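Box 3.1 A note on notation
Throughout this textbook, protein chains are presented in two layers. The first layer is the amino acid sequence; the second is a token string describing backbone geometry. Keep the layers aligned when reading.
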Amino acid sequence: MNAKNISFGCIALALLGLLWVALPVGYQHWQVNHQLKILHDAGEPTLINHLGDPAPVSVWPLDKKVDARTSILEILPEANALVVELKPVLNSDDFLDCKQPVSAQHLSVLKASFEKHPSVVPALRAASDCQRYAWPSPHTPQGVLTTDQYMKLLLKEISNLRMVGRLMFCGARFLASKGQVDESAMLCVDLMRLTGLQETGPTVVVYQTNVAIRQSAVDQLNVILQESVLEPKTHAAIERVLAEHESSDAFVQALKTERAFGISSFQNMPSSVRWFSGSLPDYLGAMQAQIELGKTPPHKILASAATSQFPLTQLSMQAVESCRNAFETDRIRLRCLRILNALRSKQIVSCELPSECLGLAAEAIEDPYSGRSLNMDAVETANGIRWCIHSAGPNPFAVGEMARGLPNDKGNGRNPNAQNPYAQGENQRHQMDLSLSP
């Protein structure tokens, strides 16, 4: 074999090797582009360019066509000043515990602060009457923001949302401490409505933040419903906002916007990482599986999805699973509150057949983990009947543990004297406590 033949052989082997690598990468490239085209043709966001205003409107059926974000930004400077005034209250764990009475010292701070800034809370309540919350767009005069830049913008927005939630919670606690329980309950309803507008924003971080904010309203409403007699119109308003949240698709929308953010993140990577690692097709498949799963309750899910072998997808799925856990926590606690509201509005002291005595659809009182009705236990107290409402949680053998103070049951029946090992930090304060109790 002469040198010429050897040279041709080497070239042929090199070409075959190149084809061996290029063909799979080329097919992968075509496959990804085909998937993205299908999503784009279906009107789904596929890049951060598609996020922000105009965002999907809230499911809340209102006549006004006003942006809640604009209304909040108008009052933001005064709201920031009010937060400074309320700092001694906001830093108190006792005040944040709705089951603890507001101290005289905190009442004095609340009274002076709200009298000094009387327009803040009414303006925030008015924002909750808007049709949507127009999230900022990544488009700027200088071009489209990078994923890192856009996330910084979203985190700044989230900081404002947390502040608004704190101020409305303070207002609700203050009203309840003065005996104005109906007014306090309606302020909680407004806060829940506002979180419903805000949670339509992009990424799972935005969704989870609003879930965390909403739990303060759930806790305050639980205390009010357990201890007070409310007007029929207040019960009706509570039922309405809870029914709207039950039908909301904000969680699925959060997954879709998270996928768009993730795609843009992958596209910002070097080509060698993006195409030769195979991570992007794997990520798209994992996200599609989560989106198709949607709001399916855990008891209907036969098996967990296969674990990805790609580190980038694994990291992304951790955030998605955290968001799904937050969604289930929220769904359970809102259903527990809906049950409690029905029990109190109908003045029920015993309920053998929940769907009949409560007047709610079976799905509205279903435990997502067991498929049966959420557990309802009447508790005799010196002040009359109170209710412990809870879910079995992900452990089918842990039914009733939340009532004994363990963190496996979910709903509205946790022992108030038990320590919650998950209550560390504002975003985690309500993450695992899925019960309502007296």
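The chain has 15 helices and six strands. Residues 68-254+323-436 form one domain.
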